[in-house]
Every structure is written in C-alpha cells, then in structure tokens.
Write a structure and sequence with these properties.
With about 725 residues, this protein is mainly beta. Helix content is about 5%, strand content about 60%. The two termini are about 25 Å apart.
C-alpha cells in the first residue's frame, strides 16, 4: 500500500508545474469540502449509486476475501500491480530475495494459484499483467496452501489469458534543481498469447529505471571538547542509467503440464562526483580542495525456469535458477592546495564476478481433501571472484600500483525437506516442515595461501498455523529455524580512500542461525477497514556484525548470540462509513529493539544499523463524480548506530519524509500524476565519532556531522495502455 514501493523519481522546480500541482489540489479540495457539507444519508447513497467521471461506482465491499476486477475500477488501474496495491491492509513481500535458496516460501503472490518461478520479483511480475486480464484477486492464508514456507496473507491473482496483443507503458520524466532533467525513465510491456488457447503466453518488457540526484552539504569537525576546528563545503552529483529488458514465457504443452521461463538483463552504469572545500577554523593554514569519484559499469543476467507435470497420484516440479553479475568499479580521491598545488591522490579498482546456480525438485501429493504433502530436494552453488588493486600518487610522482590482490569465495549447498499441510479442525489449519542442510564453504586468496573448505550440517524447518476466530478475525502463529544468507563481499577486504576506514578480510565468517517466532492478529471490520498487528522475536546465534581482527583490523565476523523483537502494525481506514466517500488512510508502523554484546567493550547494544522505528501514513481521496484524486504521505525510518573498531556512525533524516500528489485518471485515455516530494524540506544527516585508537583503549578524537540539502523533488508520471 505504500507509495514508496517503486524508486523515487526525482524532479524539480518548474514554477508553472508546481503552481499547477497546487491549483489541482485546491480545486480537488474544494470539491471535497462541498461534498462533505451533504448529509450522511446522502453521502451513503452516493457511495452506492453515484457514478464518477470514469463511469464507475465506489468499490463495493469484497465478499469472502475475493476482490473482483470491478472493485478496483475507481482507481483506473493499468496493471495487476496497481490492483494489488489497493487491497486494504495487504503488503507485497519479496520473500526469497536476499534469503537462502528457494525453499523458504517465496513472495506472497500467486498467479492462478501458482507460486512465482524461482526468485522472480513480484513487483516486476505483476507489472507485466494487464489489469483488464485480471478476473479477481483473492486473499488467502498461507498456512492453508500446499506451498511450503508461505504464511500470513497471500494474494492469488486470477488471470484470464488472451491471444490479443496488449501493452502498457509509463513515462516518468524527472526534473530537479541544479540537475539536468532525466527524460528517459520509463517502461513498456507487451503481452499476449501464441498458438492455440492455453499454448504459449508471453510478456516482453523494456525499461530504464535511471536516476539523477545531487545535494549540497556542510560538514563540521569538532575536537573532543566540542570546539569546531574544520568545515567542509561539499557539492556532489550522481546518477545511473539502468536500461534493461525482461521476457516471461508460459507454456502448456498438454493438460496438467506447465512450464515457465523468465529472463532478465539490465545494466547499472553508476557515476558519482563530489567536490569539497576544507577550511581550517582554529589553526593557520590553507583551504584544501578535494575531489572524489566513483563509477560502476555493472551488468546483470537472471534466468529461471520450471516444469510441472503429474506423476502417479501427485505432481512433480523442477525449478532452475541462474544469476550472473559483473561489477567493475573504481573509487578515486585527490587533494589540492590553492597555494602549494597537488597534495596527493589515490585510486582503488575492483572487478567482481558473482554467480548463483540453483536446482530444485518438488513432489507433492494430496491423500485426502485438505491434506497436502511435499518432499523437496535442492542444490545450489554460489561464487564470488574479486580482483583489487590500490594506486597511489604522491607530489611529484606518478600513479603507482600497490600490488594486485584477488579473492575467491564459494559455497556448495544441498538440502532436503518434508512439508505437510492439514486442517486440525473447522477453524484451525497447520503447516509444518522439517529439513536439513549441508553446505561446504571455501575461501581463498588467489595471490596467496589457500584456505581449506569448511563443512556444516544444520537443521531447518518451521511450524505455521492459523486459527479463524470468525469470518473476519484470524490469529496466525509461526515458529521457524532459519539459516542466514551471507554477503560474500563481507569476506573480502575493502579500502575507504576518503575516510580511511578500511575493512579487513575475514575468512572465518559463517552464516548466522536463528529461531524466529511470531504471532499475528488480523481483523477485517468490513467495507475495506482492516487492522493487523504482528508481534515477533528472534534468537540469533553466530550473529554477523563488526569484529576486531588482529591488532588493528576491523572486519565483518560472528559475535555470538543476539536477540531481536518488535511489532508491526498495518491498517486501512476507508472514509465511506463516516460519510467521506472515496477517501482512505493507510497506516504502517514498525517498532523494533535488539540486543547484542559489543565485541570490544562487552556492553549490551543494538545490532549494527538495525531498524528502531519506521512508519508510513498515506492519505488518498478519489473525488466522487470526477476523475480526480489527490493525497499525500509522511514516512520515516530511524535506525540504530553502527559500531566499528575506531568509530561510531549514525545516519538518517532530520524529520519525516513527506509528499503531495494530484492525479487525473482520464486525459485522452491516459493517467497523469504529479508528486511533490520532500515538502517539509528535510535534510539527510550523517554523524561520526572517531577515536584515537580502538574504542576499548582510545579516547574520542573528533566528531563529524554533515547535512545534505536536497530541496523539493517533483516527479511526473504519464501512464497508458493499448
């Protein structure tokens, strides 16, 4: 439900565009005020009978958690993604993205009752389905399904395929102060069917999610007594074209046989440049000019496929995934004095190649109605190859290489699991899974001594249940044993040219293991009004955090046990019941705490950078009798400090993020939307405390604080279909 599900599209400040935005808001608000002056009875009658400019009535209340296509007509959706986002109280989760393998449930989206293939992004998959092809969307409970790992709310999108060629497109021009406009951000999707009915379906997407951004900032440096001794005025710009293409194929060669193939390729051509003037305050000396740059020419290829067919009294399914990523990057930094000239420069180059291959087989059968079994086996291979080189240039010298270093990190993994789903009564459903994982983790310095592989055997599994108190109130509980997914870059050393906060390699790193528990209460009050609260906790062993290595090394490693707990609230409030037709308020609020013993000083603290509080409140008004909609949002994310060997960092925003939007749903058949972000003019901040040695032995040397001023951001969007 959040309006921030897609990357923000930054834009700027044309006065006529901004005035047009607020003019639309004023007109829409005037219509709203006039409508609010009517009696409640009249408003309720309008909610049932009045047709808007789109010729659609206010959405009827869904029956039996099924949302027919006409429920969404008021919003004039273009894709299935637009429809799912308007389901009260529902949140899309990506599931396996960033998790270990394919056997942990996946995204909470089904298409015609089927799980998405491999690690397919549900946002991309839904955006490729035309809204007019959607028959209905039914909210189901994961514990009642025969899909291992799914729990909580699951959206099952029923799609009616068609042979006709259809397409959707969107264009998102971006404008922003002091930056060139970004005019190429957009997406085009073509879909249809070839051959006889039920034959080959296809969806082809071409897109560019490129962005440009920039800010000006002033950084202050103070000594241990709080005395300002240096200021730094910085101006930076960055951006990245992200062209890509995706192809999705579905094939039904004969009844009960299904095949899917998804392939996606995209580039990420990032560049960043920053110029700063460093001015001493308490000491004599010249200003220093610094220049830093970063670039990356990344390409990504993702492919996944599956084939499902009946065997004996059950169904056998094979799934394959291939991910490849190449990421050559560079970082540079130089210092110059206006009086004495060049002072020094450095450059750090890195070439990284990442590979993931997964194969999985699942066999499922149902011996009786409502009782499902599945046995699964999965194998995976992950690998990271990295080559790095540091270059230095001193006054009067040339750029000289400091030696090439190379690393390889790989993991072979196999797992097997047995999953069972069944009702335990007319109101209680249960799903349980037990499994075991074997993995072999190896790391090596290709330019130095080899490191032998380490082998692990770990249990995995979960128990998930749903108790249906009545037709509108569900209680869900889940207990899971999870093995974490490592970031292979954490094994590898890294160089920080600007701040001199380098990372040491650590080949002893192992995945964390966790016991996860949650209880969720989900209440539907009718007419689209929902409230859901989830309480959760985790006990983590082999916690991945920052650890000391040797006498002065700072690396990513394992620090023992940690605890994490919190609650999440998601609620939708529709205004129709209170005489405000077409209005809705969506609320998300998360609170979290965590505890781990600091590896240097032993005191309890939060996990590094862990979430503390996050909220997102979105208001929307689809004005009855018109094609206009308007609204806005406020949101914020507050995270904990990050502890390193010689420093403590914290970053965030000094107030809530804010936005206003106005939308017209039918301008010559197109949907036009203007959104003004950062209405309150917030600034991002970064704070750092540096010590003159390790935190356990040194004292505070200095504190640093910087604030980035981005200004207002205006985004335009034009959407159409054919």
């Amino acid at each position: 439900m959040s309006i921030f599900n897609r990357p923000l599209l930054a834009a700027t400040g044309s006065p006529c565009l901004i005035s047009g935005l607020f003019a639309g808001l004023i007109v829409s608000q005037a219509v709203s005020v006039t409508a609010a002056a009517q009696t409640v009875d009249t408003l309720q009658a309008d909610a049932r009978t009045t047709e808007g400019g789109t010729g659609q009535t206010v959405p009827p209340a869904p029956a039996d958690n099924a949302y027919p296509a006409d429920y969404f007509a008021l919003y004039v959706p273009r894709t299935a993604l637009d429809m799912v986002r308007r389901i009260p109280g529902f949140q899309i989760t990506r599931g396996d993205t960033g998790r270990r393998g394919l056997g942990q449930g996946g995204a909470n989206i089904l298409i015609n009752g089927e799980r998405l293939t491999g690690k397919t992004d549900p946002f991309d998959q839904l955006s490729q389905i035309q809204a007019e092809s959607v028959v209905e969307i039914r909210i189901r409970d994961g514990a009642t399904l025969s899909i291992p790992g799914l729990s909580g709310q699951v959206a099952d999108v029923t799609v009616e395929r068609t042979r006709a060629l259809k397409g959707t497109w969107e264009w998102n021009p971006q404008f922003r102060r002091r930056l060139e406009p970004n005019l190429t951000n957009g997406e085009l999707t073509l879909s249809g069917e070839l051959g006889e009915a039920g034959g080959l379906t296809y969806a082809l997407t071409l897109r560019d999610y490129g962005f440009r951004s920039g800010a000006r900032a002033t950084e202050t440096l103070r000594n241990a007594d709080g005395v300002l001794f240096e200021t730094r005025d910085e101006d930076f710009q960055n951006g990245a074209p992200q062209p890509g293409a995706a192809l999705n194929l579905g094939w039904t060669p004969r009844p009960d046989h299904k095949a899917n193939l998804n392939a996606e390729y995209w580039q990420f051509n990032f560049s960043r440049s920053a110029r700063a003037v460093r001015t001493p305050v308490t000491s004599a000396g010249d200003d220093t000019l610094t220049f830093s740059g970063r670039g990356e020419d990344e390409w990504n290829l993702e492919m996944d496929a599956d084939y499902e067919f009946p065997v004996l009294s059950g169904t056998l399914k094979f799934i394959g995934v291939l991910d490849r990523e190449s990421s050559p990057t560079f970082n540079s930094f130089s210092r110059t004095s206006p009086r004495t000239g060049f002072l020094g420069a450095s450059r750090f180059d890195q070439e990284a190649e990442e590979t993931e291959v997964i194969g999985r087989a699942e066999y499922g059968w149902s011996p009786s109605e409502g009782r499902d079994w599945q046995i699964a086996a999965e194998g995976a291979f992950n690998e990271l190859d990295v080559e790095q080189q540091l270059f230095l240039r001193r006054p009067g010298g040339v750029l000289e290489g400091q030696g090439l270093s190379a690393f390889n990190v790989s993991e072979d993994r196999a797992e097997a699991s047995l999953t069972h789903s069944r009702p335990l009564g007319p109101r209680l459903d249960l799903q349980a899974s037990a499994g075991v994982e074997y993995s072999s983790l190896s790391q090596s310095r290709l330019t130095g001594p080899q490191t032998e592989a380490r082998e692990f055997v770990r249990p995995k599994g979960f128990v998930s249940s749903t108790y249906k108190v009545d037709d509108s109130f569900d209680i869900r509980a889940r207990l899971e044993r999870e093995v974490g997914q490592l970031n292979f870059f954490d094994f590898v050393a890294a160089v920080d040219l600007e701040d001199n906060l380098n990372r040491t390699s650590n080949f002893d790193l192992v995945p964390s293991q966790s016991w996860l528990g949650s209880v969720e209460f989900d209440k539907d009050f009718g007419d689209g009004n929902t409230f859901r609260i989830e309480f959760y906790g985790a006990v983590i062993s082999d916690t991945v955090d920052r650890i000391p290595v040797g006498t002065d090394g700072d690396a990513v490693g394992n620090i023992g046990k940690a605890h994490r707990y919190g609650f999440d609230i998601v609620s939708t409030i529709k205004g129709d019941r209170w005489g405000l037709p077409g209005t809705e308020l969506n609320i998300e609020f998360d609170w979290r705490d965590s505890s781990v013993d600091d590896p240097l000083l032993g005191f309890p603290r939060r996990l590094n950078g862990d979430k503390e509080i996050a909220y997102d409140v979105e208001y929307r008004h689809d004005v009855t009798g018109t094609d206009w909609a308007y609204g806005g949002s406020v949101s914020r994310f507050i995270s904990a400090e990050r502890f390193r060997l010689f420093s403590i960092d914290r970053n965030g925003v000094d107030g809530p993020n804010s936005s206003l939007f106005v939308e017209h749903k039918d301008v010559a058949g197109l949907t036009l939307r203007a959104t003004l972000f950062n209405v309150l003019g917030n600034e991002e901040f970064f704070e750092r405390t540096r010590f003159d040695g390790r935190r356990d032995a040194g004292i505070v040397r200095q504190t640093e604080e910087i604030k980035y001023n981005f200004g207002p951001i205006l985004s335009l969007s034009v959407e159409g279909s054919f």
